[in-house]
Specification:
The chain is an alpha/beta fold and 309 residues long. Helix content is 38%, strand content 16%. It has one domain: Mur-like, catalytic domain (UDP-N-acetylmuramoyl-L-alanine:D-glutamate ligase, 3-Layer(aba) Sandwich). Belongs to the folylpolyglutamate synthase family.
């Protein structure tokens, strides 16, 4: 028995962090070497990459909910986690188990040889290995950092979503919106549809999508969402309108993009199925609505200027 056979889950996570000196080391060269050795099957019948500055996790959660409610086999890979690392990979709505990930860690380690994978690269490959063995209908993959050189971008995707672009991680991605947009546009694949979640994005994103022969669906041009009142909203394209009698639990702007993505992935979807999935979507720590009693309590604390601790 070697040392890896005796390692528990937390020991594995600690070990993986020692494989490189740098926590963030962008580039696809290292991960591509190991990815080719694994000879993985496609992650799912449909693979979706979700990039952008904000809203990636919520967009994935909306899509996950829509297709789970249709009894499809669905996986979501996202980061970072809120409490436990297992949150990064959900299979049919449930966090992956420790034992399942340990098995994947062992396989990645056996194929890695002397390739110095970063923590994110190693764990991303582990998640992809798990997903590739499950005969999934849909895999929704949240891009980690940027896009072009992010570990998730080794995938061939059937659809790319760019939620928005603003200044983030400037030490790695660049100091201007245009430079960051260039990195995020790197997830767009040849002849694969692209959903753009904002009406005004740097031209480089549309230019790349057009150059690669992609169908482009952009907010406020190809699809529109608007509040009807404080409790209702509607979404529409040129030939379709969907009315929602409630607001979603997650950010509304991301719901608009997820609805468009759902229809691109499965044009036969009925309005009632989209409505049900969008309204059931939730994600701990992401735009969660507080219960009325808790909100009243917090308002009371503010009014009396009482410290929380």
């Amino acid at each position: 028995m070697n040392k890896f056979d005796a390692m528990n889950y937390n020991e594995w996570l600690s070990y993986i962090q020692t494989l490189t000196a740098s926590e963030i080391d962008l580039g696809l060269d290292r991960i591509s070497v190991v990815y080719r050795k694994l000879c993985l099957q496609p992650l799912a019948k449909k693979v979706v990459l979700v990039g952008g500055t904000n809203g990636k996790g919520s967009t994935c959660a909306f899509l996950e909910s829509v297709f789970l409610n249709l009894d499809k086999k669905v996986a979501v890979y996202s980061s970072p986690h809120l409490v436990d690392f297992n949150e990064r990979l959900r299979i049919n709505g449930k966090n992956i188990t420790n034992d399942c990930m340990i098995r994947a860690f062992k396989i990645i380690e056996s194929h890695r040889a002397d390739v110095p994978l970063s923590f994110f690269e190693f764990t991303t490959l582990s998640a992809f290995l798990v997903m590739s063995e499950l005969d999934l209908d849909y895999a929704f993959v949240e891009v980690g950092l940027g896009g072009r050189l992010d570990a998730t971008n080794i995938l061939d995707s059937d659809l790319s979503i760019i939620t928005n672009v603003s200044l983030d991680h400037t030490d790695w991605l660049g100091n201007t919106i245009e430079q960051i947009a260039f990195e995020k546009a790197g997830i767009i694949k040849e002849k694969s549809p692209v959903i753009l979640g904002e009406p005004l994005l740097p031209n480089i994103i549309n230019e790349r999508a057009k150059a690669l022969g992609c169908d482009i669906y952009q907010a406020e041009r190809d699809f529109h969402g608007k509040l009807i009142n404080m409790n209702q909203f509607e979404w529409e394209t040129q030939d379709r309108k969907i009315f929602f009698r409630e607001l979603p639990k997650l950010h509304l702007e991301n719901a608009y993009s997820a609805i468009m993505a759902s229809i691109v992935l499965a044009p036969q979807l009925q309005n009632k199925d989209i409505i049900r999935g969008i309204l059931k979507a939730q994600l701990p720590g992401r735009f969660q609505l507080l219960r009325k009693t808790l909100m009243l309590f917090l308002m009371w604390l503010i009014i009396i200027n009482q410290p929380l601790c």
